[in-house]
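Hi team,

Below is the intake form for S100P protein from Catharus fuscescens. Please confirm the fields before the structure is written into the shared record.

FORM ID: S-0412
PROTEIN: S100P protein
ORGANISM: Catharus fuscescens
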Amino acid sequence: MSQLETAMGMTIAVFDQYAKTDGNRQTLSKAELKALLEKELPNFLASGKDKNAIDKVFKNLDENGDSQVDFKEFVLFVAALTCCCHKYFEQNAAK
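The structure came back. Fields below:
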């Protein structure tokens, strides 16, 4: 598989790994999202000192207000975070 195909497969696998823990394999609960962020994106949370960061992220991701984060909502988050990282690295490379 190509690098991009591998990255897409890994995104799906990570979502599925955490989504299955509460019985609903199609969505992430707040607890599942918290576990995913703590294990898979530890630097994302460690950089902030906001104690309510998980609640804020969850609320922003849950676009349809069903108290669950579905795969589409999760992928939009990963894409947005990837865009931010890309911009950060571009700015630092220019210095």
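SUMMARY LINE: The chain has one domain: 3-94.

Thanks, M.
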